[in-house]
């Protein structure tokens, strides 16, 4: 898996920008569209800084969420709500290109419907869909998407998207992609600059801790470090 260590956060974001542009344009040229999964947290800020600078056919983007909080889009915890407010005004994307959730339904149905919408995007074949790119985050405990350490969902293999009602991090109710879907992506990127990420990255890369983020095994998994976050070894 490519591990890229850059000088500082600005250089990390330039590399993120370059990779998204390259992967999106290759997908659009090869398959006629670009399927991408967004995450929340610090990634939202990074995308607001980088996406306005890329050259791509925006109308060909289909945007899903690697996980989403079961809250109204007006809630500060809503991932879609963040991108609607902060990203859409900056780039030629429409709300309709984002696959958001309907919190008027029970969270179990929301997960079922989200999985169905992903399958429909990929033609409802029997094969596990392959997203062109998943943009993943990592929490201080090593979680990614809404897959948390020692949680039963880590062993989920029968679903592509499932729900969680006991998230260790609030809000407790969420939906999340599972490993069968995440690990079938063509590309995944972890954008992890800064000293705040150094401890958890050391646990994964040096101590070989079996944490959720370390279990991501997509076809190409890019880890974008800077000098402040980089562990001393560069292979999981």
Indicate the structural class.
Answer: alpha/beta
N-C termini distance: 8 Å
The counted number of beta strands is 9
- How large is the radius of gyration? 17 Å
Order of helices and strands: EHEHEEHHEEEHEHE
Number of helices: 6
Major beta sheet, specifics?
6 strands, parallel
Q: In which range does the helix fraction lie?
A: 25-40%
Q: Uncertain segments of ≥5 residues (pLDDT<50)? A: none
| Percent strand | 15-25%
- Shape, per Cα inertia axes: globular
Average pLDDT, rounded to a whole number, is 95
Name the strands of the widest sheet in spatial order: 1-9-8-5-2-3
Architecture overview:
- By secondary structure, this protein is of the alpha/beta class.
- The chain contains 6 helices and 9 strands, in the order E-H-E-H-E-E-H-H-E-E-E-H-E-H-E.
- The chain has helices spanning 9-31, 42-50, 79-86, 107-121, 179-182, 198-205; strands at residues 3-6, 34-38, 61-65, 67-69, 133-136, 161-164, 174-177, 187-191, 220-226.
- The protein has a 6-stranded parallel sheet with strand order 1-9-8-5-2-3, covered by helices on one side. The protein has a 3-stranded antiparallel sheet with strand order 4-7-6.
- Strand 2, helix 2 (42-50) and strand 3 (61-65) form a beta-alpha-beta unit.
- The radius of gyration is 17 Å and the shape is globular.
- It starts with a strand and ends in a 10-residue tail after the last strand.
- The model has no long low-confidence stretch (mean pLDDT 95).
């Amino acid at each position: 898996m490519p591990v890229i260590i850059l000088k500082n956060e600005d250089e990390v974001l330039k590399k993120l920008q370059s990779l998204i542009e390259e992967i999106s344009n290759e997908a659009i040229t090869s398959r006629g569209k670009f399927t991408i999964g967004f995450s929340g947290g610090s990634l939202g800020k990074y995308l607001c800084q980088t996406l306005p600078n890329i050259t791509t056919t925006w109308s060909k983007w289909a945007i899903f969420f690697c996980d989403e909080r079961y809250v109204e889009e007006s809630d500060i915890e809503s991932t879609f709500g963040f991108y609607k407010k902060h990203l859409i005004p900056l780039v030629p994307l429409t709300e309709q290109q984002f696959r958001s959730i309907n919190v008027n339904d029970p969270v179990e149905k929301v997960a079922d419907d989200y999985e169905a919408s992903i399958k429909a995007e990929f033609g409802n074949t029997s094969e596990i869909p392959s997203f062109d790119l998943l943009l993943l985050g990592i929490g201080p405990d090593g979680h990614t998407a809404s897959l948390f350490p020692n949680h039963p969902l880590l062993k989920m293999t029968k679903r592509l998207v499932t729900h969680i009602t006991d998230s260790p991090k609030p809000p407790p109710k969420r939906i999340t992609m599972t490993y069968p879907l995440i690990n079938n992506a063509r590309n995944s990127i972890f954008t992890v600059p800064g000293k705040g990420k150094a401890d958890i990255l050391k646990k994964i890369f040096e101590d070989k801790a079996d944490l959720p983020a370390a279990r991501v095994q997509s076809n190409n998994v890019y880890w974008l470090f800077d000098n402040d976050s980089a562990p001393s070894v560069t292979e999981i």
